[in-house]
What we know:
Strand 1, helix 2 and strand 2 form a beta-alpha-beta unit. The chain has helices at 2-9, 43-55, 72-75, 89-102, 129-133, 151-168, and strands at 15-18, 60-63, 82-84, 106-112, 115-121, 177-181, 186-190. The chain starts with a helix and ends in a 30-residue tail after the last strand. The chain is built from six helices and seven strands, in the order H-E-H-E-H-E-H-E-E-H-H-E-E. The strands form two sheets. Strands 3-4-5-6-7 form a five-stranded mixed sheet, sandwiched between helices. The protein has a two-stranded parallel ribbon with strand order 1-2. Helix content is 28%, strand content 16%. The chain folds into two domains: 1-65, no CATH class; 80-219, Rossmann fold (3-Layer(aba) Sandwich), CATH 3.40.50.720. The chain is globular, with a radius of gyration of 17 Å. The relative contact order is 0.16. By secondary structure, it is of the alpha/beta class.
Amino acid sequence: MLASLLLSSMKYDLVRIIDGDTISSTDLGRQSLYSADDIGKNKAEVAFNKIKILNGNKNMEFKNEYLDSYNVETLLYKINIVLDATDSFKTRELINQYCVREGIPWVMTSSYGHMGQLKFINPGKTSCLECMTAGRDLIPINCHYDSVEPYVPQSVSSISTSIVSQFLSGIILDGDLRFIDFNSMEIDRIKIERRPSCKVCQNRIFPLLTDEKIKGRQLY
């Protein structure tokens, strides 16, 4: 949620926070906007209300929903860029398919242990998520499944916010995958080329964009 605070302070036309999850005690160490009094409340609403105190929230709104195939078009409507901080790889695949179909850039992020991971995806110009995974089902690696040092998601949020700002400022960004080791302060950069056989960004096949909702948050 730090990214929401940072983006709102930049006075963009609209920042939309989407999260159907509730705050638990494990969130307190890695999310500076939350306190013990917020446990059990919706994450997006709490973040919205606290940021409102800081800057008035004239350019913000929140949605107390999980992103899925039923609501993706409504929740991401009129969005210029998506910043992903989800706990589900299936959700990332859904975001990738929707953003590729609609031509919307997005930033994939994850945090685990003392490591952070980021990839910028600009449909038609960089590789997409499917180019990287080649359709393989990957095990989610993020703070929902793995222990994470409190400073890692905060740092990843700051870096991903910088990526959003650079793109909206007209800076051309690559689609390479970056692993950040916050212990050694080293960044490993893996070049991800656009894959000619990619079913999503090349063949434009979007199996998750369907009216047949897959039930169960673990799948999204």
